[in-house]
Amino acid sequence: MKLERFCVTDSEVICLDCWAFRKHFQHEVLNVQEAAEEFKAQLQKSVIKLQTLIEKCNAAKRKLEGLLEDTFFYLAI
Ligand SMILES: [Zn+2]
Fold it and tell me: What is the pLDDT of residues 39-73, one digit of tens each?
């Protein structure tokens, strides 16, 4: 059987027969290409969120390093 559909309800790839006549009847089903595009879009959103988080962490790290340098500077006087 050629797997041509993706059942969103069960998160699995299914064949047309399973979709039409078996347990996936009435489940939310996409064609495989649509599902791939949807997951790709979700993945891109996650990557952007992650990049934003990394930038925030790096900014916080730079700030802490600056504070640490200042502290050592004053302690050395
Ligand atoms: Zn299903």
Answer: 999 999 999 999 999 999 999 999 999 999 999 99
* Residue-range definition of the domain harbouring residue 14: 3-76
Cα of 21 to ligand 1 centre, how many Å? 11
pTM over 0.70: no
Total number of domains in the chain: 1
CATH of the domain at 10: 3.30.160
How far apart (Å, rounded) are the C-alpha atoms in residues 16 and 1?
8
Which residues are placed with Cβ below 5 angstroms of ligand 1, an ion? 7, 9-10, 24, 27
C-beta separation of 60 from 54 below 8 A: no
Q: How far apart are CA 35 and CA 15, in angstroms?
A: 14
Amino acid 7 reads C
DSSP state letter for 15: E
